[in-house]
Design goal:
Distance between the termini of chain B: 46 Å
Helix content of chain A: 25-40%
Mean pLDDT of chain A: 82
Low-confidence stretches of chain A: 1-32, 195-199
Largest sheet of chain B: 4 strands, mixed
CATH class of one domain in chain B: Alpha Beta
Mean pLDDT of chain B: 89
Order of helices and strands of chain B: HHHHEEHEEHEEHEEEHHEHEE
Number of strands of chain B: 12
Number of helices of chain A: 6
Helix content of chain B: 25-40%
Largest interface: A-B, 39 and 50 residues
Strand order of the largest sheet of chain B: 10-2-12-11
Number of strands of chain A: 7
Radius of gyration of chain A: 21 Å
Structural class of chain B: alpha+beta
Number of helices of chain B: 10
Order of helices and strands of chain A: HEEEHHEEHHEEH
Oligomer: heterodimer
Bound molecules: iron/sulfur cluster
Chain lengths: 199, 305
């Protein structure tokens, strides 16, 4: 790949990230005007840009300095014999990985670490990670497409307003996708829920 | 609507008749909340006609009055509306027991959305922790406080099932609770005499009684209110889940669904064959609670596998 193309791609990625950030941060309440039948309001799936990696240093504002994946990976040769986090001895120390028999390169694109890669070799933006997950998790994707998996906000009636939907990685860490659990919110203290009478 | 009311029936005549049949002791107990009634709201509001007999103009006026009451008692501006059912829409709710993790975010969202009493931490949703392979709510635990989901357990949130054949509405001696066209079972807080018959009749323990006036700090009151839903209730009346009608009749999702991180909750229009809820009913292993009672809930449970 020529350096020119790489620069163009990086530029595209940056523009993409900025564009997405604008969408994600600009959640104006949707007005409840009834559109003409047949023109539903949009359903937006949350999109997360490529992660930034902490370097351990701090920047001029004393915030943790972060870098793009490609900052290091552009000058390192991919080593497919490294399969999981514990195989690495220089970087990503302590990276937990429990996701079936996948390896790093099952999802990450060795040709551009600022991207993901589908099993057919097609490059994917991090923002579109749901397409990557869906390759294996078909039933979940089917349920998701039918509104029966994954949290959402907005309108049940798309004629009157849109919706914002979680994407897979809002709940599932891609490296350790099993739901990690939660502390429940408090229960009511009514006569059925005093907390003493059950065995 | 007038013809649905027995001629000349007012709350006063019913109270008298009930006194004659119940016996003095039972009657006194039944109306105890009423005798403690204090005019937090205007006498007009207490003596008005049945909700279903009100004209749109009267209803609007009443909503303005509740807003003025809120201003007077809490010093805050609230918006009270009385959104009506949309003809042809029939609401339904389905809950995926395979992915509910028992986090109680839904119950908490209900608590805040619906201006529930803070001291009792009331909510229209109870989440039962159940042993895998069982389905007997009597052995469920609604008071768990450990990290969820726990091993060997699953979680079953229970709220009003908005039954098509609702026993609660039939036992009400004053018709203060009824099923609306879009399927939502409502309570008129100003018509309810607090006898609690409906609470006893509900097989799902879905109703809650206001033993005391719900206390919510003025700064925490949700100002987006429905006359038949989340306006702050008076003492001595029954309340229950209203499918957040102040939201859902405007096309919005109920608060409990928005709060659910997992997507275990599916809400929509049962009359629309393209709706998500219809997809669930057609494609998942769906069941209803206590089917043998014939209550015909419009709240469904399902499993992924
Ligand atoms: S918020 Fe969702 S996952 Fe949590 S208890 Fe309620 S239904 Fe279950
Ligand atoms: S669940 Fe209970 S309160 Fe709700 S409609 Fe059925 S009987 Fe009535």
């Amino acid at each position: 790949m020529s350096p020119g193309i790489t620069v163009l791609m990086l530029a595209a990625a940056v523009v993409g990230v900025v564009g997405i950030a604008a969408v994600a941060d600009d959640h104006q309440p949707v007005t409840t005007t009834v559109t003409e039948r047949g023109q539903p309001h949009p359903v937006e799936i949350r999109r997360h840009p490529a992660p930034r990696v902490r370097t351990g240093a701090v920047d001029h504002a004393c915030l943790p300095a972060t870098i793009a994946c490609s900052t290091c990976h552009a000058v390192r040769t991919p080593d497919p014999s490294n399969k999981v986090g514990s195989d690495l001895d220089q970087f990503h120390q302590g990276l937990q990985f429990q996701h079936g028999s996948n390896t790093c390169l099952s999802c990450h694109d060795p040709g551009s670490y600022d991207h993901l890669r589908r099993s057919d070799g097609q490059r994917l933006a991090f923002e579109d990670s749901i397409e990557l997950c869906s390759q294996c998790h078909g039933p979940q994707r089917r349920d998701y497409d039918n509104g029966a998996h994954g949290g959402m906000n907005g309108y049940w009636d798309l004629q009157r307003g849109g919706r914002v939907r979680n994407t897979c990685i809002d709940c599932h860490d891609p490296h350790v996708p099993k739901y990690q659990g939660a502390i429940p919110m408090p229960h009511a203290r009514d006569r059925f829920q005093q907390g003493a009478s059950h065995d | 609507m007038t013809e649905e009311q027995p001629a000349g029936m007012t709350r006063r005549t019913v109270l008298k008749a009930a006194g004659a049949t119940l016996g003095a002791g039972a009657f006194a107990a039944a109306i105890a909340p009423l005798t403690q009634w204090k005019p937090a709201e205007s006498v007009d509001e207490f003596l008005r006609r049945h909700y279903k007999e009100l004209t749109p103009a009267e209803l609007t006026e009443i909503c303005r009055r509740v807003e003025a009451d809120a201003k007077k008692t809490h010093g805050i501006d609230v918006h009270v509306a009385a959104p009506q059912p949309t003809p042809g829409v029939k609401f339904g709710y389905a809950l995926n027991l395979s992915i509910c993790v028992g986090c109680r975010r839904c119950a908490e969202a209900c608590h805040r959305e619906n201006n529930h009493d803070r001291a009792t931490h009331n909510s229209y949703i109870r989440v039962f922790e159940m042993d895998n392979g069982t389905l007997d709510l009597a052995h469920g635990d609604a008071t768990y406080d450990h990290p969820v989901p726990a091993k060997g357990k699953y979680y079953m949130p229970v709220q009003c099932h908005h039954c098509d054949n609702a026993p609660c509405t039939k036992v009400c001696p004053v018709e203060a609770t009824w099923k609306e066209q879009d399927g939502i079972v409502v309570v008129d807080y100003n018509w309810c005499i607090g006898c609690r018959y409906c609470e006893a009749a509900c097989p799902y323990h879905a109703r809650r009684f206001n033993w005391k006036k719900p206390e919510v700090p003025a700064s925490e009151i949700n100002p987006d209110q429905g006359y038949l839903s989340n306006r702050v209730r008076p003492q001595g009346v029954m309340e229950k889940c209203t499918f957040c009608l102040h939201r859902t009749r405007e096309g919005r999702l109920p608060a409990c669904l928005e709060a659910c991180p997992t997507g275990a909750r599916v809400f929509g229009d049962l009359a629309d064959p393209q709706s998500e809820i219809r997809w669930v009913l057609a494609n998942k292993r769906v069941f209803i609670l206590k089917e043998d009672l014939g209550t015909r809930p419009t709240f469904f449970y399902f499993f992924d596998k």
